[in-house]
Amino acid sequence: MRFFSVLYNKAMGWSRHRHASRWLVLVSFTESSFFVVPPDVMLAPMSLACPNRAWHYAMLTTVASVLGGLLGYGIGALAFSLVEPLLHQLDYWDAYLKARLWFENWGGWAVLLAGFSPIPYKVFTIAAGVVAMPLLPFILASLAGRGTRFFLVATLMRWGGVRMEVALRKYVDVMGWGAVVIAIVGYLLLSR
User: Fold this and answer.
1) Three-state SS at 2
2) Of 165, 158, 114, 111, whose CA–CA distance to 139 is shortest?
3) pLDDT tens per residue across span 4-32
4) In terms of residue numbers, what domain contains 132?
């Protein structure tokens, strides 16, 4: 069944679209404060499709993500009571509490780590606003964490280039179905 090949081909087609950069900026900005799709899902295929523009895409993603992080910071500082129910509803409350604990223990290093890791960055941007983290360290940590992550993704895609695109196209269905099996097994093991 070639389900993942179809998705891969569509993603690669979209990544070459003339408005792809605008969508990348929008996704990067919104993911830092409220949207759930990480920008990596656009950055990687765009960097793979146009390796010579990979670092340009990484810069767009980083800047838009940090600006979106400032929106998240503002939400935490000015409107936390409005978003608290959403954190509960979207099952981010435990992550928010963990972010608060990290701020108490490590301060700005928590933002740096969250910016680089797969931990939801939006939770940390909101928490930074709630605890009134100083703005300059927040921006610098966000630039360092997000920039490192996005430039790493772009560099790997640029390095792999056409060879990686061909290899992914060849094995995408096997990898996709393998990920589905791993996710199901993991869910079954963790739900006991």
Assistant:
1) coil
2) 111
3) 677 666 767 777 788 889 989 998 999 98
4) 3-190
